[in-house]
Amino acid sequence: MASPTLRQLRTFIAATEHGSVSAAARTLKLTQPAASLQLRELERLLGARLFDRARGKLIPTAAGAALLEPARRAQAAVADAVESVGEHRSGDAGRLRLGTGATACIYLLPAPLAAVRRRMPGLAITVATGNTREMLERLEAGDLDVAVVTLPVPRGRALSVTRLLVDPLMALLPTAMAPPSRGIAAAAIARLPLILYEAGGVTRAVIDAWFQRAGLAPEPIMELGSVEAIKVLVGSGLGVSILPRLALQEAVPGTVVRPLRPPLARDLAVVMRQEKVRDRGLRLFVEELAKGGLKRQ
Length: 297
Known about the structure:
Layout: H1 6-18, H2 21-28, H3 32-46, E1 51-54, E2 57-60, H4 62-89, E3 93-100, H5 102-107, H6 110-119, E4 122-129, H7 132-140, E5 146-150, E6 159-174, E7 184-185, H8 186-190, E8 195-197, H9 202-213, E9 222-224, H10 227-235, E10 241-244, E11 255-261, E12 265-273, H11 280-296
Parallel strand pairs: 3-4, 3-5, 7-11, 8-9
Antiparallel strand pairs: 1-2, 5-12, 6-10, 6-11, 6-12
Helix pairs in contact: 1-2, 1-3, 1-4, 2-3, 6-11
């Protein structure tokens, strides 16, 4: 059975409240024949008479009385729907689904996200963390609106990639293992017990490639997915690591930081689907993120 239209229900409610088709038509700015047609069509769709007449006034039948409250709820739901969309249209509300790595989530994103919420309090923000491959897959599937990931992004994908910042990778060593020289080469690090990111992520691949260019393939004594756990283990004197400078903004007790020789860095980028609609919340996030990224260059 076909469903009643909102226009038919609105006319039915007005006719019930005013007791007259002509009065309902005037309220809704319709002609009387148009209002009468809508009511007849509504009765035909529902298969029941909705009105009786008494002394020239419309009186709801039992079926009409049963329909009145559901019809009013339907009208109220439509009003709520229009109002909620209006908030998004005006830019007062919205949704931002962000994917990123754990390091960027901890050290890069808090300030931009806080700035966005100050500018747009009605924005609902969710953050997912994982490696670059996982975040790109979720982005392409439409589960995320934007991702902040480590380059490279594989070619051939319908994605918009904007480089955000260059994040140098640094050696983090227990104080007792630190060489006196300012920089430290791959061969010197390879002789020490290594604690690295777990394999499979882009940052780990960048580190492995750095060792390979020096003709080395060291075996880590530990591999972890948490940069915070790695910092604690290095601070305990268990080994050395190579971490993004972004994660080393605060001193780690019991450790020293040394630049790598030759230098090594990873590139962070903002990635979106090319066809993605840039609503206000997304535009504000990219704007605030770019401010923070430029400060770190």
